[in-house]
Amino acid sequence: MSVSTAVERKTSDANSAEIALTVNGRASHLDLDLRTSLLDALREHLHLTGTKKGCDHGQCGACTVLINGRRINSCLTLAVMHEGDDILTIEGLGSPSALHPLQAAFVDHDGFQCGYCTPGQICSAVGMLAEVKAGWPSHVTADVASPQVALTDGEIRERMSGNICRCAAYPNIVAAIREVAEGGRR
User: Fold this and answer.
1) Has residue 99 got a pLDDT over 80?
2) What one-character DSSP code corresponds to residue 100?
3) How confident is the model at residue 3 (pLDDT cuts 50, 70, 90)?
4) Given this model, what pLDDT does residue 7 score?
5) Phi, psi of 10 (to 5 degrees)
6) Which helix (H) or strand (E) holds 70?
7) CB contact at 8 A, 87 and 20
């Protein structure tokens, strides 16, 4: 749905609209200010607090979610822009009794310290592995003509460079991603 369509369906306030978001497979109807970021809609209106607000400028990656399978910084996009999209947050990846393979690998490899960046790191890693599977090259891909990307540690680090970990758990994050990429977890 476009922003103009949402404006046409506006509520009594000219700056708000009722929108429908599909988050983690569940549809929700929200009356939102048109300027509400997707991050704020997730945290403040849907109470999905796994997605973190770090810098609120798209520089740290703590707010990374998946939109139609692609990773995006939810602080940089408006909620109204994602009506009709499939939004996946860390809460939708797995459950405490059935962790997503990347969640389990992060635990096993101690790919977190304080844990604040972890939800964004994991969502970004899920999106990144899908990009690799699709054959999308990165800035450091050695052979951009190759249909298959060689997932070296440098390739993982480059692809995850938009996600900052202030505790410096990077070697463990790379190890967790590598394990899943190599089929160590299913």
Assistant:
1) yes
2) -
3) very low
4) 46
5) -60, 155
6) strand 70-73
7) no
The alpha carbon of 107 is separated from its chain's Cα centroid by a whole number of angstroms, namely: 18
Answer positive or negative: Cα dihedral of 91, 95, 98, 99.
positive
Neighbouring CB atoms inside 10 A of 176's CB total 29
Which H helix or E strand runs over 155?
Answer: helix 153-159
Compute φ and ψ for 5, nearest 5 degrees. -65, -40
Whole-number pLDDT of residue 68: 98
What is the assigned CATH class of domain 101-181? mainly alpha
**Per-domain residue ranges for the chain?**
3-92, 101-181
DSSP type of residue 75: G
Exposure string over 69-88, b if 16+ CB within 10 A, otherwise e: eebbbbbebbbbbbbebebb
Bridge partners, residue 37, by sequence: 78
Hey, what are 57's tokens? 């400028």
For tokens 């790919």, the residue is: 111
| E strand intervals along 75-122 | 86-88
Answer yes or no: are the C-beta atoms of 90 and 102 closer than 8 Å: no
* pLDDT attached to residue 1: 47
3-92 sits in which CATH class? alpha beta
Residue 184 confidence class, pLDDT cut points 50, 70, 90 = confident
- pLDDT tens-digit profile of 14-53? 899 999 999 999 999 999 999 999 999 999 999 999 999 9
